[in-house]
Specification:
Largest sheet: none
Structural class: mainly alpha
Oligomer: single chain
Order of helices and strands: HHHHHHHHHHH
Number of helices: 11
């Protein structure tokens, strides 16, 4: 009997210790399971960001307004390239000055590109694009004032002012895409604003310039062997070119002024909520 009592006395603590160990192990397993199922802080933050992200159909309006501004500036830049001989004869300047009407664009771009990056960073997308659109319209107006054959300097000044638009806007396509478009659409948006629409402007200008600024008398009046003013047909030729050039440049100026108003109304700085977590 004494031996049996001793065995029970030794066995009971061992069994109790074994039970406690099993209960502790079960408790730890349950705790680990709950921790696995509970969302992490990163997941909670990611979920809250996802709920606040949204794309707006207005992004396509913003892209269109920006692209048309850029295309219209390309039209201004290359207006005189398809009619270089007529411009040289009309203003009585050398080929160097005729070429300067397009070269000034590249020179201003080099000088102001860093200022463009600073403007986008400090002033924001909306203010920078409105400023660029205003410069575009001002340059177009100066060109209209330079239509007279003695005002070539005004024409060149208008080209220079309009060239500032090019410098300000060419740094913006990637920023516009990231602010307004989700990652899946950014490559398309950047291609449209940075490549397709500017080339469309080039197509327009190379088609319109020779069509609107021309005269059937140009071969006789502007031949290399004669002084244009000495031709008896000069007066009629001058009136033809002046009329075509004036209304062509005036139409561009009116269009650019309309673009300023449209840009001011339809170009917000950013959407109410970002299109992706990267913004």
């Amino acid at each position: 009997m004494a031996d049996e009592d001793r065995e029970e006395t030794v066995t009971e603590p061992l069994l109790g210790h074994h039970r406690e160990k099993k209960d502790l192990q079960r408790l730890l397993e349950n705790s680990a399971s709950h921790e696995k199922d509970a969302p992490t802080s990163e997941a909670i933050v990611s979920r809250s960001h996802t709920n606040s992200m949204r794309t707006y159909w207005w992004r396509w309006v913003v892209l269109l307004v920006f692209s048309v501004n850029l295309a219209s500036n390309n039209v201004q830049w290359l207006t005189f390239s398809p009619i270089a001989d007529v411009v040289r004869c009309y203003y009585g300047v050398s080929n160097f000055w005729v070429n300067s009407l397009s070269m000034v664009n590249m020179l201003v771009y080099i000088l102001l590109f860093l200022l463009s990056a600073l403007s986008l960073e400090r002033l924001g997308l909306r203010t920078t694009i409105i400023l660029a659109s205003c410069l575009n319209a001002l340059g177009a107006a100066l060109r209209v004032a330079g239509t007279g054959r003695h005002y070539f300097w005004l024409l060149l000044s208008g080209q220079a002012v309009g060239s500032a638009t090019n410098a300000l806007m060419w740094g913006a396509p990637s920023l516009l895409s990231s602010v307004w478009f989700p990652p899946s659409e950014r490559a398309t948006a950047t291609a449209l604003t940075g490549t397709i629409f500017p080339q469309f402007g080039n197509v327009v200008v190379f088609g319109l310039s020779p069509l609107l600024v021309h005269s059937k008398l140009t071969p006789q009046v502007c031949s290399n062997d004669t002084n244009p003013k000495s031709s008896p047909l000069y007066g009629q030729w001058y009136d033809d070119i002046y009329s075509g050039l004036f209304y062509y440049l005036l139409g561009q100026a009116v269009f650019c002024v309309g673009l300023v108003a449209l840009t001011f109304i339809a170009f917000p700085n950013a959407p109410p909520t970002p299109p992706s977590i990267s913004r």
